[in-house]
Amino acid sequence: MSIEGLGEIAEHVRRFTVLVEPGRRGNGSGVVWSSDGTIITNAHVARASEARITLWDGREFNGEVVSRDPRRDLAAIKIPASGLASATAADSSQLRPGEVAIAVGNPLGFLGALTMGIVHCVAPLRAIGRRPWVQADIRLAPGNSGGPLADAHGRVIGINTMVAGRLALAIPSNEVSFFLQGQAGGHWLGVSVSPVRLPRSSERNIGLIVVGVEPVSPAATASLLPGDILLGTEQSSFSSPEDLAVALEGTDPRILRLRFLRGDYRKIRRVSVALPGPGRSSLAA
Length: 285
Hints:
Layout: H1 6-15, E1 17-21, E2 28-34, E3 38-41, E4 50-54, E5 60-69, E6 74-78, E7 100-105, E8 113-124, E9 132-136, E10 148-150, E11 156-164, E12 167-172, H2 173-180, E13 191-197, E14 206-213, H3 218-221, E15 229-233, H4 241-247, E16 254-261, E17 269-275
Antiparallel strand pairs: 1-2, 1-4, 2-3, 3-6, 4-5, 5-6, 7-8, 7-10, 8-9, 9-12, 10-11, 11-12, 13-14, 14-15, 15-16, 16-17
């Protein structure tokens, strides 16, 4: 695949791609979304309230995680900087199959690594919910999460998030715009979750394993613990983080009754979680 001026385009994308270190093992990538220091990454990358950000020129900043959205798996980090090289977002609704896609990130410790492929489609993937994804036959690795997926002009068309089969999945750039406009209503539960396949001894096939519980959160108050597996509410089952986000929709204070597993996969437990208001978004992986 040959693109005229690819070197310049790649350098342009690298300049607004950052390294995100959440203070735990591993790292991810991010995008300088605006020159005033707003960084966009995945919520599952920015798990804590702060993250260390390294720019393309080596400058480092302590960033504050100012917003999270569990449904879109997006987080916004603010760093004390201005005049930064920032991304230009393309209209992801205009993407068509066959367009060139360029991913830049920090996979496996390689900073600013670039890989290329072709856009497959922009559509939901049945196995992981109803949200749309930019699906591309492009190779991603751990550390690419949160980084930019760009078009042949260097404009951001998505935020790289995960791999499903042979396809890389990115959150469409239009979803980032909605996120930044505050269109993410819902209660805050205070958990990080990830889909997990349950053993045959369980009556269910898929659940959401709790990866982390934030202190002083509704989940912590209800004594949910890392390692618990959320099965659903009394009315519906969970098979993706989006299902949990749907259960948290609304703004009125209420009680959320969850079914979950702890230890013995054959015994379903139940807990009532008090949701006082939307306050903050829950964090879903």
